[in-house]
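So, can you check this record?

>
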Amino acid sequence: MLAEELLYSPLFLIAVNAALAAGIVLAVRRLRSAANQQVEQVRDPHERLRSAIRAEVRDPSEYVIGVGRALMGELLEIRELGLSRSSTFREALDALASHLGQLDGLDEFAMTFERVRYGGEVPSGEELERYRATALAILEALDRRAPMRPSRAR
């Protein structure tokens, strides 16, 4: 008799419906999250760096600094390089060279960045062209090697 009263109780029916609705909402969220993760995996892993390199050069100094910062951000995400937030630009390039093999022009690339970033110099047109060419070579090397990135927290 008590079981029949419970089954036909409006409060019990509301509780059952609420539990079912919550289950449906959770299932939909998980499906959407899985779909978003799949889309994220398809994206270009070096999109920030690629867009910084391809950006229009309005101010040569800002361009050099922007590409350098984008590259540093990319390198910090590659766990095999063993870099930390306190790593310098030159340390990051040295770690990249030891991981990917020697790349031509890295010393000049680092010197240009350091002179512009810390010395306030404005790079010449030739320096800017060599800087961009080296940045593209680094990007190509990263694309070929594709080191593992840490998994993002969910």
